[in-house]
Sequence to fold (303 residues):
Amino acid sequence: MKVWSILLSLCLCLSACGGPPAEETPAENSGPAGAAVTEANPGQSPSEATSSAVLTCRIVDGAEEGSLLLAELGEGLYGGAGVYRLNVQNLPVTLDGIAADASVLEDGMPVDISFNGTVMESFPAQLGEVSSISAWSRGQGKNSTGTTYDLCGLYLQVLDDLWQKDPGLNEDISTAGLDLSRAPGELTESEKAALAWRFGETHGVEVVMGTFEELKEQGYFTAEPLGEDARPGAVFLHWEDGCLFSIEPNEAHAEEVYSLPTLFFNAEKWRSSLGAYGFYDCSAVWPESGTWSGYETGGEIIS
Fold:
């Protein structure tokens, strides 16, 4: 793999210094299990480095296993779109400034990664020699805000549950579309990319991100004319080797006020004009100082 050096000032937040050519964006590189993520926003590439660096990320998944999937916070190295893999075995860890071990790390937790300033070009990207990981318990340091704590974990659960329902819609696909453009909770671009990668990795499919209209315009769907009795120009749309998964807000609850942050959303998978399955009127409540740990479904829709 090509190795990029990164110019970063000590004790300052990282910022990207220029954009790579479109064909070299990390989001277009293949990864394990045949999964890949295609992003419309490639972010920015790292540049020259002279010394050690600190990268602030959120743990999207893998804390329990010790193989972290990380989404950069702020501008990071890729303009806020960077996604990284990191094995934390034998790495020094501190929690609130006190020596600990990797067992204290949690999905959703923000962490500072101290490393030697090099990144291997892949997707997810891999940091060079890592010297330490700094973490904070809930309510401390960079972990002081938690209203979307492990939101990626919640949505991964929703998508996995949806995958299992009416499995005939997705059992033979090679590509999964994913639309998180309107998912409530203000996911960052890096979190969306990491979530998409993990979803594709879990199910062994390539993931392309985009709305229904965007994927339609890009030619993913096949349109077949309907019979003579149909209205002029009417077509039957279907995705021959793919299925589109989406999460969007349920705006029927937009004016409601609750004492704790609450998400209302619908989730759907679509294979054709006559083949779709959805969770309707879903709700998730963030417990104070806790994590998004589950959701309730108001109903299910089959077409």
Summary: Helices lie at 151-164, 189-203, 212-217. Residues 277 and 302 are 5 Å apart (CA to CA).
